[in-house]
Amino acid sequence: MKTADEYRATLRDGRVVYYEGQRVPDVTAHPVLRIAVDHAALDYEMAADSRYRSLAIVPHPDGGEMSRYFAFPHTSDDLLRRMELIETSTRLGGTIVPLLKEIGTDALFALHLVAHEVDRARGTRYLDRIRTFYAYCRDRDLAMAVAQTDVKGDRSAGPSDQTHPDYYLRIVEERSDGIVVRGAKVHTSVSMNANELIVLPTRALGDRDRAYAVAFAIPIATRGLTLVVSPYGGHAVSPLEHPLSSKHRMTETLTVFDDVFVPRDRVFLQGESEQAGPLARTFVEFHRFTAVSYKLPLVDLFVGAAQLIAEYNGIERAGHVRDKITWLVAYARTLRALTRMAALDCYQGAFEIAVPDPATVNIAKLHFATQFHQAVAYLQEIAGGLLVTAPGQADWEQPATRPLLERYLGGKGVDAEARMRLLHLISDVTTSHLGGYHAVLAIHAEGSIEAEKLTIYRTAPMDRYVALARELAGIGSPGG
Amino acid sequence: MKTADEYRATLRDGRVVYYEGQRVPDVTAHPVLRIAVDHAALDYEMAADSRYRSLAIVPHPDGGEMSRYFAFPHTSDDLLRRMELIETSTRLGGTIVPLLKEIGTDALFALHLVAHEVDRARGTRYLDRIRTFYAYCRDRDLAMAVAQTDVKGDRSAGPSDQTHPDYYLRIVEERSDGIVVRGAKVHTSVSMNANELIVLPTRALGDRDRAYAVAFAIPIATRGLTLVVSPYGGHAVSPLEHPLSSKHRMTETLTVFDDVFVPRDRVFLQGESEQAGPLARTFVEFHRFTAVSYKLPLVDLFVGAAQLIAEYNGIERAGHVRDKITWLVAYARTLRALTRMAALDCYQGAFEIAVPDPATVNIAKLHFATQFHQAVAYLQEIAGGLLVTAPGQADWEQPATRPLLERYLGGKGVDAEARMRLLHLISDVTTSHLGGYHAVLAIHAEGSIEAEKLTIYRTAPMDRYVALARELAGIGSPGG
Amino acid sequence: MKTADEYRATLRDGRVVYYEGQRVPDVTAHPVLRIAVDHAALDYEMAADSRYRSLAIVPHPDGGEMSRYFAFPHTSDDLLRRMELIETSTRLGGTIVPLLKEIGTDALFALHLVAHEVDRARGTRYLDRIRTFYAYCRDRDLAMAVAQTDVKGDRSAGPSDQTHPDYYLRIVEERSDGIVVRGAKVHTSVSMNANELIVLPTRALGDRDRAYAVAFAIPIATRGLTLVVSPYGGHAVSPLEHPLSSKHRMTETLTVFDDVFVPRDRVFLQGESEQAGPLARTFVEFHRFTAVSYKLPLVDLFVGAAQLIAEYNGIERAGHVRDKITWLVAYARTLRALTRMAALDCYQGAFEIAVPDPATVNIAKLHFATQFHQAVAYLQEIAGGLLVTAPGQADWEQPATRPLLERYLGGKGVDAEARMRLLHLISDVTTSHLGGYHAVLAIHAEGSIEAEKLTIYRTAPMDRYVALARELAGIGSPGG
Amino acid sequence: MKTADEYRATLRDGRVVYYEGQRVPDVTAHPVLRIAVDHAALDYEMAADSRYRSLAIVPHPDGGEMSRYFAFPHTSDDLLRRMELIETSTRLGGTIVPLLKEIGTDALFALHLVAHEVDRARGTRYLDRIRTFYAYCRDRDLAMAVAQTDVKGDRSAGPSDQTHPDYYLRIVEERSDGIVVRGAKVHTSVSMNANELIVLPTRALGDRDRAYAVAFAIPIATRGLTLVVSPYGGHAVSPLEHPLSSKHRMTETLTVFDDVFVPRDRVFLQGESEQAGPLARTFVEFHRFTAVSYKLPLVDLFVGAAQLIAEYNGIERAGHVRDKITWLVAYARTLRALTRMAALDCYQGAFEIAVPDPATVNIAKLHFATQFHQAVAYLQEIAGGLLVTAPGQADWEQPATRPLLERYLGGKGVDAEARMRLLHLISDVTTSHLGGYHAVLAIHAEGSIEAEKLTIYRTAPMDRYVALARELAGIGSPGG
Question: Which residues on B lie below 8 Å from D320 (Cβ)?
Fold first, then answer.
């Protein structure tokens, strides 16, 4: 098991990272990027913290210990513990998931299941490679990012029909010792501060798209790999005004593969186009369970912040305020209930891997996603206009203005400082760049709203529903 | 255990029932009311049916058998089986719950719990009476109705502040051998065809309202008790046009107590006004679990009917139709997931009675209630205007018109008859009196939407939410 | 101008009408159908009533008078007066539009506009025929129905691709003196009690569908025309329980054309398949303005009934009740504002006909349609469960039960009778067959929700919106 | 009429402004605040621009010219022109209203109306003072801010019941030549760069609150007046990443009155506590019309940006995308229709001032406010995750990364630059601080959602609605 500092040391490896137009020689030393590094290091800190050890660490099958993330879930309880670990680290991370191992192990679980199928259908030997890679990551306690979403160009066209062939990542050369890939992925979270990059296809592919059917893993410092970190939200520096985003960040990159060589034993899919869809889907199903788990602290915070600021503002007994808080409670608790039910209703796939019930996971995610903006609206409504008009940290520290703030910005039974802190917290999480980040992630991360709907439709027990309608209508069954 | 016919025989007991302005001498022989009797008899038929025996019957503690409804739930599994029994009987009942024992045992469970508290606090001996009454009902396999909602007059005023004193049921005389009560209850389901009537207070009461704090049980044929059955929906007679409501009904009565004497051993609350609220609430919490259980066939039917009529109409592949069906799937499955979770998250009260988690039950009920009308709208939208413009059964049977209907009302790969049957089913369940009944029940039955919200607010772990907000805002705890 | 009795006399003409499986020899004498006849006769009664004359009647261009419906609207004010006439007659009609001339003149206006185009493009002489037919109807003060919606079979296929060729009405023979048509229409309102039936195509057609491109008008008593009246809602007879639907009805028919001959001068489209779409659309645009006009009394009633029953129940000051009534007010007033704005923003088509702004009409209609079920839910919530559990008229008239009702069903400052009347009114309009009728009409009548959306999308000034986005993004125009 | 530079010069007057903890000697020279100054100067620039002169300028009653804002509206057309002017300047201001005269004249109109009432009721002479002040502002073409919202402390308590007496602005001394006031206002827009500050009460007051019933106007540079500008959103500097907020800003201040002396002829209310409510309300009614007018470019932008980015992403034909764009169109057009209707339905108050119909204004505002977050969600959904993960301006300018961006971030028929510009525009307006600002303003600016609901309820023609319900229910009127 690594310490947080050992983890930081692994990031000084010559990786090609650009931020705000500058090549970054050491991401752990960069004033903005280090915030994301330190945030992610939470994962290692929890493992070393006696309060969280039993949650974060499990016995290694060969003796010793390993991060719980690497443990294959076999039961509902395993999934519930994984959910609890993700929730706890996200709470410590100020509503932002660390994600150093969550997404990577989601991918590894999916790769195991799909490789098993591919090998069976095609006679390939991918499973062995994946097992080796999995053990490598596990035993070195590595941080993993996953690059899935291609840049896509015209989304109404498939990979082979784009105006240029690199709008989806593809194999440009097949060699005896490996493959060479070219293209770019977007929205790649934590790639800047991970050790390994796992690359997966983003969609189902047709026969003509064989070159695009590719999955593999490479170290971040691999030659030809360039990470352009999004500057979004990089300005948050005031602990008072941005209590969460000044301390916690996740970064995304445009991840460019400029004829990157991938050695043979790190290639997990190479041209089996019919497997691209299953791999993409299987990963996403695991990953959406991660998603709904890490959303829990955010929605719980919405309830608590709404209740507390209502009290500070003296409106906690107003009927419409109660009504909105009740709505937030139902919103949060429904998400939690559905997430737990997805674990309780898991099924066992190959290798006795417990897969959270896809229908329930997607219903949970859709519930979260489609009502998130309304939740934001209610919280903002209860908090008041000071979210965007309040004085800030420098005003608080300035001797001429601080007495004015202290005198005038108190609330019901609360001094100005606590009220300002709470207002800025709500502002950070709903009206700042972090707020925008949460809002867009609600809609787009881990698959779009429409993708969730599609899964819900596909996994519905439609035969049972239709049989009930037939029975009550007195219509015989089609074949009967 | 009774047979269905034995049950029917018990209803010929001189009870005072009015329907459509006529005194009904024998409810089992009345052309409309017998539909409700036959529907409710499902409960007894299931017990005698080998397909449902194991679900409907459990061993009696003293040997022999008894209806599962009388079994105290002690575990999540007990609650899940009770849920399954309610769901199954409602499915067989064409979306209408039989309710002969469901609501009565909800009341009995609540009476056990509250009597235990009252006896402890007040030194009374109610629990013994309830146990005796419970055994009486169980061992005779009796059907029970529950009268709770008072007529209320001006709802903004309490019982003692009404313009006349009988707007809430009250004790008008306390005698050594019992009490005399006067007043009226509304919305009393299945009273017309039950054996016993359990009477509960409808709300929390104050000190001045002692006379209104009363609970008891009496046989339906008790002198002074008059039942005025609502005529609502009594016209449905065509099996084609009203496939459900022509065969299945539940009736409600205005239930008038004209100085009814209740013997002492049947009195379960007599003036302990501080217990009226707890009793009303405890009953409702059990009963809302019954409610969400019996809603399941209805929402499942909505999905199945929407999918099947979409196929019949040839629009099942249209994007907006898929979207609406997906919405219905998520609506139905969320209700089921929350209902099951309420059972899984039960807590144990006195006598090791498993109480479904009140927060989750109410969230489930609110989810159902607040989106039901939208579900109706989507189903109606997919089905089409024929719901209210189609020819009917007589047109189908008339030789001159039947060929026209057969020729012109077919759909995609389906003949006119099946399509008409399905359309009439949807019409019955959404646009007929049954449709109106379901809609109003969604909002009002087993407690109003606002009551559900209140429970959700009250049961929220607000301390935990607020602590999270404080932690992330960097605000110390109030006492710290 | 006809009197109501003269109108009734015109209906005794041998028309072939079936109701509940029986051939009806005289629709004005039938116990159920006469309700619809009497309801529609409102149109003639208003013209004879001094309170409504100035609204209902305008000068005939050749001297004398005529119904305002026949007057071509040339200005916003003309449209507003037409709107007022429709609203007023629907209010007198207990929320049900009479529709004897509304829909027919909508069709006549559209036929004028489209015939003008067809004649110009094709050299045909349809306009003359339409003018003649228009004058014929106007000068005889005739009642007109419009048959538009075909039975359609598989809605995913066009007319020529159905499993049998008559799923859309078509020309089966072209003769020198006219045409012979076969097929069936559904949802044909007021055909049972109109004088003339105007037939229009229901959708855009392709070249292969020439036989289906047909429009014409025939008297109802034409040989080969059979009307099968829907039995939906025919049971409402109690003035107390169904205060509206016992007195007011509109009927719809399955309208079958069994090789009906249409004389040449009554044919308004014959094979010009490219004009079927424009004709269908132009009619619907006029007709949706009629629709939003006649919805106004219904939504206003919802507000008034909600407020009054809230007062009767004593809950009119509760915060959540106010909130729901406010929602209903905004719902109703937005519909009215948009309807008026559609008139104010009209454009002038050929013959200086004022066409209500299609975008605003459709936005108004969509606003009404997509929130109607929510409006129902709020009204039902405020009214309470008695909507479906209250005693009825016979109970009120029975000496044994009436005192019970009087004693127990009063409200805050109101006696039982007024409260019962109001509750039954709300029940009639939301939970009875009339309620179901209004609900389905909200979604399907005058074009579906999806059709309204399509029009809104098509009529959007997208260039202006996109130019604004380009301007603010600093992106040059495509051609610039 | 002033030029923009003359306006800037007026701001160098010694005003006490703090920003980010620093006293700002010259707001026109400050790197952040000057953005807000330049933005507001748009008002003066339009008056000097031949394209906008006829809109921005009207004849002065005494000859010469004046800003249209100062013109009293007397007709619907006057209101429509005012609306057009506000909309146009906001469009030029990148969705941010300049507000230099809009809000001030809203206050002046209201002051005229209320002073008229006060003088009549109390025999005071406020109207003369207001006329003098109005002419002073108009003839010097001054910029005016309005301070209304008090800091309020415990919002459940009135001014006199707060824990300290200054939580609402109050008169601490009445002198023969004027008054001395103490307290603080929040959310004061454009005060930093206005000339005059008009101060109004924020709520209805009781008898005990006489000292809080105060209205007046003072120059910004008045002794004792301190402005603490909110730092919210001050970091936006990249024209690419923040195309609107880097160029356009409005600032709000905590506005502190530290025993400020107001000369007698600038006092417009002094202790007439019963008039505080009417004045607050009258101002807000005018101001909400300004509000809905300036929201129009924002909602129009949402439509245009959604359509254009859908095209760039190649998803403009997807059914669900069309559906969401249609929703946005209806959202935007309904707002515009209601806003215009409020002008068309104006009534004439004293001095023939045309007051926009309060009901319609508030319905328009509520429509905008309650659906704004959903509009944001749809726009974000169509745009995609790049809103928060895209590279930025520096990456675009860096030679090493620009080719990567150009290669990979193009869309359907569009190059990377245009697509990036559009994505950043959408990001700016929905996920940046400007996005948060718009969201919170939607809910809170110009009065809260609950205040709008209250006005809608109060202005409803409830008698007419209830009379309709009575008529259709057959219930006599109360007094009849």
Answer: 319, 323
